[in-house]
Amino acid sequence: MSRAFNFNAGPAALPEVVLLEAQKHLLNFNGTGMSVMELSHRSKDYEEVHNSAQSQLRKLLQIPDNYEILFVQGGASLQFSMVPMNLLSEDKTGYYVLTGAWSEKALKEAQKVGNTKILASTKEENYRSIPQLDLDLLQEDAAYLHITSNNTIYGTQWQSFPDLKVPLIADMSSDILSRPLDISKFGLIYAGAQKNLGPSGVTVVIVKKDLISEPLDHLPTMLNYQTFSKNNSLYNTPPTFAIYLLKLVLDWVENEGGLAALERKNIEKAKYLYDAIDESDGFFKGHASKESRSNMNVTFTLPTEDDTKNFLDAAKKQGFIGLNGHRSVGGCRASIYNAVPLEHVQRLAEFMKTYR
Ligand SMILES: *Cc1c(COP(=O)(O)O)cnc(C)c1O
């Protein structure tokens, strides 16, 4: 059976070699006679997987020593709550930039925890772009500024990040590892794994140590970052198989040449689709404004809703999976994360031209 042309937004395509590697060792990992799923999370064999996932991530993203790497469950959605619970004290304000549905949700959870302010928003233009920031509006009381680096639903992406005096917090669920990153600009980064890192079930949190140095004993144990940092994310049973697949994906990224190489490939892939849009005489219309376009999620519509529906039907018949836009915006969306092969993207671009 051949592999699908998978443009799903998440869970999304995984590298074929990763799946084959996992398959090869599924019944007998490392001579244990067990699957990774069946190992004790306290065993040496598992611990090696766990620690090498962390060290691979540290190497690829060049994460400095004063940052912790945590493996948490509950998805990026739980981070919407954990960030303010851990970092937003009573006398402070959490600032948010609204660039789409996920940042709205992050704000909504923070509002349940403490004081919040919206620093900037592009909601009025249906989140077509990333706003300019007026950093003077970030006042003394700021605990942090929260952004969503890639807006999975609208197809926009921050092209650069501001230098701040307060911690910059980023939801990078849909573009982590898609390009090199200066970690030192951030106080905390989080990402659910199921777009660019692996399967669902594990969320990676990269956090500057000094931000989580206070005890915060009033917090539920499992909602306190310190529980994870003090116990190497092994306070309770971690999602061992998801972390194993994460490790395999990280090995794959290294084999691909690391983040600079992946960025080049991602730019090339995205260009095929944006060219198909831009050279269509308006037949395909991109949702994102050009300067904010995402290299991970390409969003577009056709002249009418009927046209869009017909295009999606025809694409499905050709074997293209997952091209429907998110239910909240409609239209079409091609998610072209790291693991989506160039050839699949080229085929889609060809199909778009032929269809037109
Ligand atoms: C997918 C996604 C989420 C939600 O992630 P869960 O792991 O399902 O909670 C949050 N933020 C962004 C940017 C996403 O793409």
Automatic annotation (TrEMBL):
Places the protein is found: Cytoplasm
Cofactor binding remark: Binds 1 pyridoxal phosphate per subunit.
Major localization class: cytoplasm
Keywords from the named record: Amino-acid biosynthesis, Aminotransferase, Cytoplasm, Pyridoxal phosphate, Serine biosynthesis, Transferase
Residues of the Aminotransferase class V domain: 5-348
Annotated residues for binding of pyridoxal 5'-phosphate: A76, S77, W102, T152, D171, Q194, N236, T237
EC annotation from Swiss-Prot or TrEMBL: 2.6.1.52
Molecular function via GO: O-phospho-L-serine:2-oxoglutarate aminotransferase activity
Its job: Catalyzes the reversible conversion of 3-phosphohydroxypyruvate to phosphoserine and of 3-hydroxy-2-oxo-4-phosphonooxybutanoate to phosphohydroxythreonine.
Catalytic activity: O-phospho-L-serine + 2-oxoglutarate = 3-phosphooxypyruvate + L-glutamate; 4-(phosphooxy)-L-threonine + 2-oxoglutarate = (R)-3-hydroxy-2-oxo-4-phosphooxybutanoate + L-glutamate
InterPro entries in the cross-refs: Aminotrans_V_dom, Aminotrans_V_PyrdxlP_BS, Pser_aminoTfrase, PyrdxlP-dep_Trfase, PyrdxlP-dep_Trfase_major, PyrdxlP-dep_Trfase_small
Family assignment from sequence similarity: Belongs to the class-V pyridoxal-phosphate-dependent aminotransferase family. SerC subfamily.
N6-(pyridoxal phosphate)lysine modified-residue sites: K195
Protein name per Swiss-Prot or TrEMBL: Phosphoserine aminotransferase
Residues that bind L-glutamate: R42
Cofactor: pyridoxal 5'-phosphate
Pathway membership: Amino-acid biosynthesis; L-serine biosynthesis; L-serine from 3-phospho-D-glycerate: step 2/3
Pfam families: Aminotran_5 (PF00266)
Subunit structure: Homodimer.
